[in-house]
From TrEMBL:
Keywords on record: Membrane, Transmembrane, Transmembrane helix
Taxonomic classification: Bacteria, Pseudomonadati, Pseudomonadota, Gammaproteobacteria, Vibrionales
Domain of life per record: Bacteria
Pfam families listed in its UniProt record: ArsP_2
UniProt xrefs under InterPro entries: ArsP_2 (IPR021552)
Record flagged with keyword Transmembrane helix: yes
Residue stretches spanning the membrane: 52-70, 91-114, 120-140, 147-164, 201-220, 232-250, 283-303, 315-340, 360-393
Organism whose genome encodes this protein: Enterovibrio qingdaonensis
This protein's name: Manganese transporter
Length: 396
């Protein structure tokens, strides 16, 4: 039994071991305390349940489909290598990679720029086009808006990259140091891709969770449909939300800004559902943070945040853009969560999606800090332009 449990809780990457001192464990402990406390239970339980059934379930399903298609159609990176040999397609390629949900495509472009394979305009294009993990959240909850943002990001990135290359040329701000790629490696179990408890959890849970989520989306009562006592689905959803947060908390120590707001490193030989689990748990944590911050603020201080934001409507596009300047996907997921809940308008979402660089900004700062800084400044210009254009043309 001991051996089984140690395999089940095996860390997802080398050097990641469970420690009772993990600061992240404060998060699930706090959620449990809020559920137990009588004054907050009525607000926290439905919030956690909605975060699992209406967000995490859809995000996991979307991620599973995305990772499956990625592995099936470009397993060996042939698409990448072909396009890198054609200079006139570099910015187009970078915009496409940035428009892909998640941060993987943007990180690929950053590393290829440092290696000398892509232009600086490609860096601007990918950082402008990328929406990071917030794209999965938006696609899962508001698919039409999600597709709109991906298409908009692609074209804004393409235009921005072309303009920057025309102004500066291919090698502008390219660092002299060579990039040495280091892949996080995990041992395969009996020749099979690595997967641990959180991967198994979502491998087994994604279909049932998606089924319950669809029932709720069609405005049906899952408790009545399955003959369960009233409130069972809500209680189970809240419990599963805390489970996903706990998996995230055990993944690694939170001792840096990046370890809190960025994705956890993934293994080179990870199972498809291992990546699904890590990204879904990360997104869920930030969605819960956004939802609870909103609901508890209203409950404790009797403040109507939506009304306050309505009074400051002209500042909301700027708010979205400024949050987008923060490295990491966490703050961007928070803005998207506020948009999904109707607290901030589409203009703020547009400004955030174009200005934010997701987790790609971390390797960019480490490998080419000057290029990262200038590219971020360049991506801010179209973010302000398109956010306020939408605000003036549509929302006023």
């Amino acid at each position: 039994m001991t051996e089984f449990l140690s395999k089940l809780l095996a860390p997802a990457a080398k050097g990641q071991h469970f420690s009772p001192h993990y600061h992240r464990l404060v998060v699930p402990a706090l959620l449990l305390a809020l559920v137990v406390a009588e004054p907050t239970r009525a607000v926290v339980l439905p919030t956690l349940s909605d975060a699992f059934w209406q967000v995490a379930a859809y995000v996991a399903a979307t991620l599973a489909l995305f990772h499956y298609l990625s592995e099936k159609f470009d397993r060996n990176g042939a698409f990448l290598h072909t396009l890198m040999r054609h200079r006139n397609l570099q910015v187009l390629f970078a915009s496409f990679m940035g428009a892909l949900p998640g941060c993987g495509g943007a990180i690929v472009v950053i590393t290829q720029f440092v290696r000398g394979n892509l232009s600086f305009g490609s860096v601007v294009a990918v950082l402008t086009a990328t929406m990071g993990d917030a794209a999965f959240l938006l696609l899962a909850t508001k698919p039409y808006d999600g597709v709109f943002m991906l298409v908009l990001g692609f074209f804004v990135g393409l235009i921005s990259g072309r303009v920057v290359d025309a102004l500066h040329g291919d090698d502008f701000l390219r660092p002299a140091a060579k990039y040495n790629e280091e892949l996080t490696s995990c041992a395969k179990a009996n020749g099979q891709p690595f997967i641990n408890a959180q991967g198994r959890f979502w491998q087994w849970a994604v279909i049932p969770a998606l089924s319950v989520a669809l029932i709720g989306s069609f405005q049906l009562d899952a408790d009545h449909l399955f003959g369960l006592p009233t409130g069972t689905t809500e209680l189970v959803g809240a419990a599963l939300a805390i489970v996903t947060v706990t998996f995230w908390a055990l993944q690694r120590e939170a001792n840096t800004y990046e370890s809190v707001v960025g994705e956890d490193p993934k293994c080179q030989h990870a199972h498809l559902f291992q990546g699904v689990a890590q990204d879904t748990n990360f997104v869920t944590v930030w969605v819960i943070a956004a939802f609870l911050a909103f609901e508890l603020t209203i409950m404790v201080f009797h403040i109507d945040l939506a009304g306050i934001f309505g009074e400051w409507a002209p500042m909301l596009p700027l708010f979205g853009v400024l949050v987008g300047l923060l490295p990491g996907c966490g703050p961007q997921i928070l803005v998207t969560s506020l948009y999904i809940s109707g607290t901030v308008p589409m203009s703020a979402q547009i400004g955030n999606a174009i200005s934010n660089d997701g987790d790609a900004l971390f390797p960019a700062i480490a490998l080419a800090p000057k290029a990262a800084l200038v590219a971020t400044v360049y991506s801010t210009i179209p973010a302000l332009l398109f956010a306020y254009s939408y605000f003036l043309l549509v929302e006023i």
